[in-house]
Amino acid sequence: MTKQVTIYDTTLRDGTQAENFTLSVEDKIRVSLKLDKLGIDFIEGGWPGANPASSQFFKEIRRHDLHHAQVAAFGSTRNFKNKPDADPNLQALVEAKAPVITIFGKTWDIHVTDALRIELPDNLEIIEDSLRFLRPHVKHLFYDAEHFFDGYKGNRDYALATLDRAVAGGAEFLVLCDTNGGTLPHELISVINEVKNHFRKLEKNIALGIHAHNDSETAVANSLLAVSLGAGQVQGTINGYGERCGNANLTSIIPALALKMGYDFAAAHELENLSETARYINELANLPHNRYQPYIGASAFAHKGGIHVAAVKRNPLTYEHIEPEKVGNIRRILISDQSGRSNVLHKAKKFGIDLDSKDPVVASILKDLKKLETQGFQYEGAEASFELLMRSALGIRRRYFDLKSFRIINQKTDMDKPPQAEATIRLEVNGEMVHTAALGDGPVNALDNALRKALTRFYPNLADMWLNDYRVRVLASEHGTGAKVRVLVESCDKTSTWGTVGVSHDILEASWQALVDGISYKLMKDAQQDQ
Predict the structure, then answer these.
(1) How confident is the model at residue 337 (pLDDT cuts 50, 70, 90)?
(2) Residue 374 has pLDDT above 80, yes or no
């Protein structure tokens, strides 16, 4: 019989509590669509009513068709002073109209007396009647037993009593939370076994889940152990983002469950999208990739010199615990021109480019790629730029226009008003010189407007294209104002979305590179469709 487990992602809620990790509502929608494509079962969208952005997310996500994932609204048990039907928190959960609601309640007695400042029986009451009130309004109802392991160690009988009342209220899953992240694996095993024995004595078949934090560097281990002990749901975040030291890292948990422990779940069949998803979320959050991250990091399957390289070339299993392609990663031989060759061939196939593995141009592409990467270019989230790079190396990239010059003036004449930006641009298009200017909300917007103004007369289809997202990351920030920047631009038309990248010490030059690639890709794509 196949072992089953469900994956519950809380990147959009618990993950955003991490320092320097923020996502706009639009970003959260993009992340949700990526997680849905990855096969995540439940996506926790936030705490409706806690802030306007969280409430807006639940309105916006209803406009999108998710193919597999179900969205969860998160909140707490009611305030003791309020009846369930008059509690603003519970009402906000219902009004979110999510198919799943997850609420947390106090398990640790000191939190009841010191944080909530109510009596222990009062807390049991609000757990049960909060869940009982929500049960008719939702398809799935989960209960997060906050601080469960600390609470269990402090007062075993009371911690178990809180679970009993959650079951009485209608909770579908009891999720045991290591909220402070201090539980070690050997402690977790004994506690979960005692919880199972408790319900076995009551002759109740209760579904358990696990929600672990990483303050003791054991969140992944604790999550995998919990599943091995019978937990049917595992909660975590992509890349392990979360408050303090982070949450259990789903990019390590998912492949471990699928490839090493024999569990079956939707994301197990989408593992080749794992690395791309993890890097995509990093880019949206404007955070650097952790190259040393297990499974999906750039160095996870990198081999450098000596005995390791010789052995891996003969048989990769000698120094790799899984095949990197299974999680969408690649093997890298750092001292050899073989590094990345399979990735280039894979991308060529995806782009519809006929490229033989023995073709010398593959080595040329790799050489260009390595050179650009040392300059700060990254192509995760910028595949359109990578396709243009490959076509340039093959001599099949068409030049739709040539820049002769551009100039940008950013002028502030009133201290109470924003500056005015104006861009002037000179291009050559099909042998004709074009000289034009445009205003914009900032210098990059002015440059983008001038470029489009100059080109739309020759390429009317550019009127159907728009810039959807613009991001800047400072590289090697220790150089201060002299540091390089990487600009990522996401462009859209009525049928597709694509990303491009530029790198320079000058933010306008980096922006120009990304904007030009975005327009060039649009023109190339449309030309291919017309053939």
Answers:
(1) very low
(2) yes
Per-residue pLDDT tens over the stretch 180-228: 999 999 999 999 999 999 999 999 999 999 999 999 999 999 999 999 9
**Residues 430, 432, 437, 443, CA torsion sign:** positive
Euclidean distance between CA atoms 100 and 45, whole angstroms: 10
Fold of 3-265: TIM Barrel (3.20.20)
CB–CB of 374/366 below 8 Å?
no
Q: For 472-484, how does the pLDDT look when each residue is reduced to its tens digit (9 = 90+)?
A: 999 876 556 668 9
Exposed/middle/buried for 70, CB within 10 Å: 0-12, 13-18, 19+? middle
Return d(Cα 170, Cα 125) in angstroms, integer.
13
Strands (E), 88-190: 100-106, 140-146, 173-178
Per-residue pLDDT tens over the stretch 138-152: 999 999 999 999 999
- 357 φ, ψ (degrees, to nearest 5): -65, -25
Across 105-109, 357-361, 465-469, the highest mean pLDDT is recorded for 105-109
Report which of 368, 393, 364, 363 is spatially closest to residue 379, judged by C-alpha positions. Answer: 368
Is the pLDDT reported for residue 161 higher than 70? yes
Beta bridge partners of 100: 72, 140
Helix (H, G, I), strand (E, B) or coil at 472: strand
- How many angstroms separate the CA atoms of 159 and 198, rounded? 11
Q: Mean pLDDT, the chain, as a whole number?
A: 92
Quickly name the fold that domain 401-452 has: Double Stranded RNA Binding Domain (3.30.160)
| Better pLDDT: 55 or 288 | 55
Residue 330's contacts (CB-CB under 8 Å, 6 or more residues apart) are 301, 324, 340, 342, 343
- Rounded distance between C-alpha atoms, residue 452 and residue 436, angstroms: 10
Q: Are 368-399+459-531 and 401-452 equal in CATH topology?
A: yes
DSSP H or E stretch at residue 393: helix 383-394
Helix (H, G, I), strand (E, B) or coil at 249: strand
Upper half-sphere CA count for residue 210 (Cβ side, 13 Å): 33
CB atoms within 10 A of CB 130: 26
CATH architecture of 368-399+459-531: 2-Layer Sandwich (3.30)
Q: How many helices (H) and strands (E) does the chain have?
A: 17, 18
Structure-token pair, residue 190: 């004994």
pLDDT of 240 over the 90 cut: yes
Query: What is the pTM for the complete model shown?
Result: 0.75
| In contact, 226 and 234? CB cutoff 8 Å | yes
Domain spans of the chain?
Answer: 3-265, 368-399+459-531, 401-452
Strand, helix or coil at 449? helix
pLDDT confidence of residue 307: 65
Task: Tell me the Ramachandran region of residue 499: left when phi exceeds 0, alpha when psi lies from -120 to 50, beta otherwise.
Answer: beta
71 backbone dihedrals φ, ψ, rounded to 5°: -85, 135
First to last CA, the chain: 51
Angle between the N-to-C axes of helices 274-284 and 25-38, in degrees from 0 to 180, rounded to the nearest 10: 180
